[in-house]
Amino acid sequence: MPDRKPPRLREDERTTLLALLQYVRDSLVRKVDGVDDASARSSPVASATSLLWLLKHMARAESLWVLLRFADLDVAPPEDTVGPHDTVDSAAAAYRRMWSQVDAVVLAEPSLDATTRGTGDDTPVNLRWVLMHLLEETARHAGHADIVRELIDGDTGR
To answer: Which of 75, 84, 112, 143 has the fewest CB atoms lying closer than 10 Å?
Structure first.
């Protein structure tokens, strides 16, 4: 897999955060490209982390942090357990659908200083923190996906 560099921007804070978040989202999804469902379900590491779980977990994380904790929307977060009928295609599609929901909330908010309105955490944080947290968590899990993918079939690159 060819290596892709992150975007270099001279934009405002929100545009830059969303562009970098999208870069790491895309990097995570690219790690499952070409992997069959059985391999994506398997885990070559002791923690039992699989490529399918990573996709499902990040869809859940974005839902929890933006839709529930920040926007206080009445939505059920997706499960991140891998079921017998989960596929690479279904998990990637669900994760991509979550991006559009999350990005719509972020773009509709006038200020990154707005604070979380939902439950689930005792300490309110602002939207800026939520986006930075999702950026670091997605990047961390994309790194895990790099390792899992390399152990599965030797493929490397971001």
So the answer is: 84
